[in-house]
Amino acid sequence: MMKFSLPKVLQILTKEVAGYAVPIVDLIAVQTKDPYKVLVATILSARTKDETTAKAADRLFKEAPDLTGLAALSEERIAKLIFPVGFYKNKAGFLSRLPSVLASEFGNKIPDEVEALTRLPGVGRKTANLVVAVAFKKPAICVDTHVHRIMNIWGYVETHTPLETEMALREKLPPQYWLTINSTLVAFGQGTCKPVGPHCDRCVIAQYCPRIGVRPRKVPGRSKKM
Q1: Are residues 116 and 160 part of one domain?
Q2: Which of 39, 125, 151, 167 is 20 to 30 A off residue 138, Cα-Cα?
Q3: pTM: predicted TM-score of the whole model, two decimal places
């Protein structure tokens, strides 16, 4: 195995994931560059597959293309539009309250700072960092389960929670990677370095990866040792 090099690994992965499916939040940002839609899509995407999120966001945005439209919808209507995203009832409640909180605290504008965003209903640090990075192109490190898991597999950090990983990366990760690390590792984590049964057998960075804590994927047809 060759010595792990973050710049080299990310250079390889950037090219590799260019052919993968684009995470839905990044896709919406490219299509609209609208902080409102990026925020709402990010809230919807938690614990939900991208395909489901995309369809739910499309249905919702047809009736609520902006905050005014969202404010006009009842919580029940929002729930019906976004079903079957994960925890759709909770998310409907968050989205129903969102316009009033933005009106009273932020002058009907989506804030562009992490700490301010976490004051919004349904917005944690992961969501806030993603909105800041994707919608506003400001330095932020969004750490979801893929980023947390893969960074620990590489031994780049030794942490136990996504929050610990975010704080560690803020200290260690070069700034030029802050805006892209999430989309790169989410795509890589969904397509190759999966949580269960990662495809180490066809991984483009296998020669660099120390595979810390990784269980090798079973190859079909291989006989067991007697």
Answers
A1: no
A2: 151
A3: 0.83
